[in-house]
Design goal:
It contains 5 helices and 8 strands. A hairpin with a 7-residue loop joins strand 3 and strand 4. The protein is of the alpha+beta class. It is elongated, with a radius of gyration of 19 Å. 47% of the residues lie in helices and 23% in strands. The longest helix has 31 residues. The two termini are 25 Å apart.
């Protein structure tokens, strides 16, 4: 069964949710539910904590010398720039694909050809969970790869799971 997705409409929201799910996949699979903090919210929390640490170490020399505070401040902004760059690079890549992607769900597993026409097969035993959130559906694998789709693909994905009799953990927010 071919699952097509066009994430153009809500790209930032979908990627934000999917990336957050992928980063916290161990915790989500272990608990069987997903947290409400998304990727960029977590980035901002860490950024502000680093800023707070930088201010504390700069203005209160009890903690450390002023140079350490400046180092932490630089680290905080570097962290933010790297994460924003990740989003921009991903946006640029998906824009070249016109925000469309598709995978095939077959009796063998999930087949993806979206990356430079390289055919990748993820057998059903490699798929750990499917996480359904407000804007996105994320397929988590036992590998570092994950797949994300817009919410409109939910029925097709669940239908394919039923068709191929797969007992995969489905977590809904």
């Amino acid at each position: 069964m071919k699952i097509e997705s066009n994430v153009h409409k809500n790209f930032w929201l979908i990627l934000n949710e999917a990336r957050g799910v992928a980063i916290h996949k161990r915790k989500i699979i272990k608990k069987g539910k997903c947290s409400h903090i998304n990727y960029f919210e977590e980035v901002l929390i860490i950024f502000f904590l680093l800023l707070l640490l930088a201010v504390a170490t700069t203005f209160f020399p009890i903690f450390a010398i002023n140079v350490y505070g400046i180092f932490v401040l630089i680290l905080a902004f570097l962290y933010l720039i790297i994460n924003i760059s990740f989003f921009l690079i991903t946006y640029s890549y998906r824009e070249k694909q016109h925000f469309k992607s598709f995978v095939l769900l077959t009796k063998e597993g999930l087949v993806d050809e979206s990356y430079h026409q390289i055919k990748m097969l993820f057998k059903w035993d490699l798929i750990q969970a499917i996480v359904i959130k407000k804007y996105s559906i994320t397929i988590l694998t036992k590998t570092p790869c994950y797949f994300y789709f817009g919410k409109e693909s939910e029925k097709d994905i669940l239908k394919a799971l039923k068709k191929y009799h797969q007992k995969i953990l489905v977590i809904k927010e």
